[in-house]
Amino acid sequence: MFWWKGAWKERGGTQWVTDLGCNCVVVMLLALAALATPAASQESPPPRPPRPVLSPVANRPPDANEVMLMQEKAQKKQNFELANAERKKQLDKESANLLILARDLNANLLKLGNQPLTPRMAREAEVIELLARDVQTKMKLTVGTN
User: Are 101 and 127 in contact, with CB atoms under 8 Å apart?
Assistant: First the structure.
């Protein structure tokens, strides 16, 4: 402690106290930092999930050409729906006609019994067959793609 007394006299007394105070503050801060470091590493927050990368194209508004194409597709879809509705109406009408012709031919066949077919009845059977095939092929068709 001898040299401390000398330092006290050389600096006029006040400088030594100030240096000692600064040193104490620095030592206390280092001690607090050392104590705080292990606790912070033990209780680290959970890592955040990675944010999705968005393409700049994803959020841009559509240009006029794209809007026009979307409107045309919507119009075509509506036209397809109208065409399919019309096709279904025609199928219903042709199916009703087919049913009427088949019932008439069946009634005429029951009246004949065991007698041979007349040429008129054979022609009606051919017409019924053609109409049935036509209805069958139209039922398979649909206008447009889904």
Answer: yes
Q: Which of 23, 25, 21, 20 is nearest to 7 (CA)?
A: 20
CA distance 100 to 4: 128
DSSP string, 1-54: -HHHHHHHHHTTTHHHHHHHHHHHHHHHHHHHHHHHHHHHHHTPPPPPPPPPPP
What is this structure's pTM?
0.46
Is pLDDT at 16 greater than 60 in this prediction? no
* Structure-token match 């067959």, residue found: 129
- pLDDT band per the 50, 70, 90 thresholds, residue 6: low
Helix (H, G, I), strand (E, B) or coil at 99: helix
Contacts of 125 (CB under 8 A, 6+ apart): 105, 117
